[in-house]
Amino acid sequence: MSTARPDPRASTMYVDPDEPEYPSSDGRPMAESTTQFRWIVTIKEGLDALFAAYPDVFVAGDLLWYATKGDKTDVMAPDAMVVFGRPKGDRRSYREWVEDGVVPQVVFEVASHTNTPQEMAEKRRRYDARGVEEYYFYDPDSGELEGWLRRPDGLRPIKADGWTSPRLGVTFDAPRRKEALVILRPDGRPFRTFGELAKDEEAARRIARAERRRRRRAERMALEEGERAESERLSRERAQRRADEESRRADAEARRADAERLSRQEAEARVESERLSRQEAEARAEEARRRAEMMEARLRELGIEPG
Asked: Terminus of the chain with fewer CB atoms < 10 Å: N or C?
C-alpha cells in the first residue's frame, strides 16, 4: 500500500460533466441527529483542511458514489471519503467511470441511532468489494471507533485507538466514553469541531456554500421530479392516444371485413339465383320440346304428317 503524499504543486481542476440520469441524492437526510451531523462535518472539514494545498486530493461528505456505469443501484453514500489522484471540484455525484476508475481509498461512516449491525456489516462488505483501502466507523454515542485496513485478502480489522492512517497520516485517539474522539493531524494539531469551525471565517463560508449547494440540489431535485412527472403524464397521454387510434383502426378493419363478407354473400346469392334461373329456363325448354314431340307423335297416329 502506498503511503506517499500527493504533490501540492499539481494544478488540475475537475470539471464535472452533466449526467442527470444519475441522481445526486438518495432522498435520505445527511444526518439523523445533531451529534451525527457535527461529527460528519468535523471529519469532512478536517480532511478538507488537511489536504487544502493538494489539488489532486478530492474530499467529499454525503456524496453518492456510483461504481458501475449504467447501474444506478450500485451506489454508496459514505459520510466522508477521500480520493487520492482525483482533482478537486464540485460534483453532483462521484462516478468511477468519469473519475478514470479511481476508487475512493479512505471512507468514514458515523453511526446514527437507526443504524443496525446488519446494515453496517453490509456497508463494510460493499466497501471491501469495491477496493477501499481504509474504512473507519465511529459511534459518537458509545465513543467506539472501529477501523479496517486492506490486506491481500481484503479489509481486516485493526486496533483503531492510537492508529495512524497510512493514507491520511492522521492519528486517532479514541478514549471511548471518557472523551470524544480526537483526530490528530501529522503536525499534532487536532481536527477542529463543528463549533470551532463555525467560528472560523473561511470554514463558515465553506459551510454556507455547502448549505447553498444542498438547497440548490434540493430545488433541482424538486424541479426534476416535476419535469419527470410531466413527462410521464405526457407519455401516458401519448400511449392512450396510440391505444385509441389502434382501437379505431381495429374497428374500421372489422367493419371492412364485415362489408367484404356481406359482398361475398350477395355475390354468391346472385350466382345461385342465376344458376336456378338457368335451370328453370332449361326445364321449361325441355318441357316444351317433350310436348312438341308428343304432339307430332299424336298427329302421326291420326295419319297426319306434321308440317
From this structure: C
Q: What is the CB neighbour count within 10 angstroms for residue 33?
A: 16
- Location of C-alpha cell 405526457: 234
CA-CA distance, 222 to 215, in Å (whole number)? 11
In a domain, 242, yes or no: no
Check if the beta carbon of residue 82 is closer than 8 Å to that of residue 59.
yes
Q: Which three cell numbers stand for residue 146?
A: 472501529
* Cα 241 to Cα 6: distance, rounded to the nearest angstrom: 60
Distance in angstroms between the alpha carbons of the first and the last residue of the chain: 136
| Residues paired with 4 in a beta bridge | none
Residue 264 belongs to some domain of the structure: no
DSSP letter at 178?
A: G
Instruction: List the grid coordinates of 191.
Output: 481536527
* Residue 136 zone, left/alpha/beta (φ > 0; ψ -120 to 50; rest): beta
Distance CA 49, CA 81 (A): 14
Check: CB of residue 113 under 8 Å from CB of residue 141.
Answer: yes
Q: How would DSSP label each residue in 234-267? A: HHHHHHHHHHHHHHHHHHHHHHHHHHHHHHHHHH
CATH no. for residue 132?
3.90.1570.10
Task: For residue 74, give the 3-state DSSP assignment.
Answer: coil
Contact 167, 134 (CB under 8 A): yes
What nine digits make up the cell of 251?
Answer: 374497428
Task: Provide CB contacts within 8 A for 143, sequence distance 6+.
Answer: 174, 175, 176, 177, 178, 179, 180, 181
pLDDT tens-digit series, residues 137-196: 999 888 899 999 999 999 999 998 899 999 999 999 987 666 688 999 999 999 977 667
Q: What are phi and psi for residue 41, nearest 5 degrees? A: -65, -40
The dihedral built from the CA positions of residue 67, 68, 69 and 72, taken in this order, carries a sign that is: negative
The answer as to whether 240 is a domain residue is: no
pTM across the whole model? 0.59
Model confidence over 36-78: pLDDT tens digits? 888 999 999 999 999 999 999 999 998 999 999 989 889 999 9
